[in-house]
Amino acid sequence: MKKYCLFFSLALILMVSALGMNIEADTALEPLYTYDKLPDGSFGYNQEKPIMYYSGSQEQIMIPKVYEQEKNQMKSGWIATIFNINIPTPQSEEEFQKLYMDRLNDFVDWNMNAMIFQIRPLLDAYYPSEINPTSQYLSGKQGLDVDYDPLEWMIEKTHEKGLEYHAWLNPYRVTNSLHESLLPKDVYTKEEVNAMSTAELLENMTKHGVLSEDNFGVKNPEFVINFGGKMILNPGYPEVRQHVLDTVDELITNYDLDAIHFDDYFYPYGTEKKNEEFNEQDRASFEAYGLSTGKYEDSQEGVIAWRRDNVTTLIRDLNSLITNHNKTNKRAVQLGISPFGIWEHKANHPEGSNTPESSTSTYSKSIFADTKGWIDEEIIDYIAPQIYWSFDTNAAPYGEIARWWNNAVDGKNVKLYVGHPNYKYIEGWKPGYEFLNAEEINNQVKFNQLYKNIDGSILFSYRNMKPDDLSTIPADKQAEHKAMNDSIEVLQGDTFSKKALSPRLEWLSTGDVTAIEDATLDGDTITITDTVNTNARYYLIYRGHKDQTNDEIINEISNLETKIFANGEKTYTYAVETVGEDDKFIVTVLDRANVETEPYEVQIIKDTTPTPDPVDPVEPVEPEPKPDPVEPVEPKPEPGKDKPSQGESNLPATGMDSKAISIAGMSVVLGSIILYINKKRS
């Protein structure tokens, strides 16, 4: 009997091989080890150094072997305008449009579904504004206007390409360079600049064209803090918060934005190292708006709690502003924050992460952003923590921090996306060789699959999504730049190789978008008719097999044929490339919150061309007599035709492809085995 089982097993293996089936589980995991310099001088994973979740943990990081693309997932990147990091200052409208389209098309090539573009790098505007001066990174000088609206055009083109547009703002930043670098050195010495008061700095920067007279900080020097050689607005003043609210209100009123996006800059970094100096800067506002309320002690802990509440008040007010706008106008504008990656350490707070107390955190050391509190209150729609470290960075281990954020949003109406540090391949602090590993970021994205609440990834930044020409890179930097180039190839070949729809935000849905009333396929043209929906965002067309159910087709993202932006028309057409006999097309509608309607099956219009009338028969013509038959001559074989060439066969044609023949052959083998077994038994 064992012999029979062996025969049967062999036959099954042959059949599996013939069908190309993968018998290995897709959910298989593999342990992660430190990427290190090995004894032979090469670089690779050091099997003697397993990576744990955090220092002292006994749990090793495991990475899924296979990346499974979810249907809904954030895929995006940041385009920073500050210092022209990701886009130069355009010299004309035409140049701007080309610069933006190059970047937008790159996002499409990366299968991204959202554009995050910095439109307020300082107290300025990358768009026409009645509140803030035109950005120097748009026009070349703060306050110098351009004669076109880049934001309206960007939003239109981004939506046409099927992506969301998230407007990225910095709320408080007045300057982002040291004072002495902004003022002319032939006029002021460094010592003279450092001796200037905040009001004098603002006055002289306006005089020399660094800042515009319309800059909120210039008009209100009493609201400006001078710390660390830079200036920001003081978050403790209600007038400052109102200025930020007015800025956002102007944006969501005038533009069809998908989201308002803030980064990690609230209070400045480094205040914990210079408490006394910074305390002097906001002492007056603390006395006026903190101590006077009786809620805060006159202590360092009291100041920290007050600062934290100032930022939370801004976020609450922004949430109220955007929520009211959405309800009034049937919109679904999101409020998203991308904070520093660590909220607080467990040593300082029982709900904190397993991270060293010496590392920076936003809750108590600096920045003073209670990001977990915002999640608990559900006053933001998504959070994208900047987890800008590798798995084996002891000061901030990626695995532990990603898992902590996954748990923080559990059960909350707040989406979680992770910010990844692609820039670290060629810059920034790196304690080891981790960013010589082209798989580092890809491993992070694959690792995120293990946690149900991580709904996407955002790459910082666009500059590191484009490979470098290594011949232009100094020899001592080529290894880093090659690793970045290789990482781009890895990401685009794996975790960013497929498209996805943006995550659903059910709590923002207006509920007024329904399935279409009609869609037809006539030849190779699909026509969608929708006279009902007035608030749709996109029409989605899927292509599947006729034997599949509608839900089976739309549940698989690879079946998505196209997205058509809903621009208010009642009819939309789409030219299908190569309609197959077994194709089945489905149309759904997305609302502004990415909630999808029930599927509608496209109706195929049959060819109704009438058959032509029969022609009257014609009298037959007497055929010519056939010539006498000629004795056949044996044909001579052509050179090279004496045996079948590669790909030909002497077997009769079956109409079956090679896979079908293999299956048929295996069936014969199985049948023979069964007959043999029965014969033996009898």
Largest sheet: 8 strands, parallel, barrel
Helix share bin: 25-40%
Name the overall outline: globular
Task: Write down the Rg.
Answer: 33 Å
Strand order of the largest sheet: 5-6-7-10-11-12-13-14
* Number of DSSP strand runs: 22
What's the N-to-C terminus distance? 14 Å
Would you mind describing this structure in some detail?
It is a single chain. The protein is of the alpha/beta class and 682 residues long. Helices cover 30% and strands 16% of the residues. The protein is built from 17 helices and 22 strands. It has helices spanning 2-19, 93-109, 136-139, 150-160, 179-182, 190-195, 198-207, 216-219, 238-254, 275-289, 300-329, 371-377, 398-408, 440-448, 478-493, 550-554, 658-681; strands at residues 29-31, 33-37, 43-50, 62-64, 74-79, 114-120, 164-169, 224-227, 230-233, 259-262, 334-337, 382-383, 415-420, 454-459, 518-522, 525-529, 536-545, 560-565, 571-575, 583-591, 600-601, 603-604. The strands form six sheets. The chain has an eight-stranded parallel barrel, surrounded by four helices. A four-stranded mixed beta sheet has the order 19-16-15-22, with no helix packed on it. The chain has a four-stranded antiparallel beta sheet with strand order 18-17-20-21. α12 (371-377) links the parallel β11 (334-337) and β12. α1 packs antiparallel against α17 (658-681), α2 (93-109) packs parallel to α4 and α9 (238-254) runs parallel beside α11 (300-329). The two termini are 14 Å apart. Residues 1-26 and 625-682 have low confidence and may be disordered.
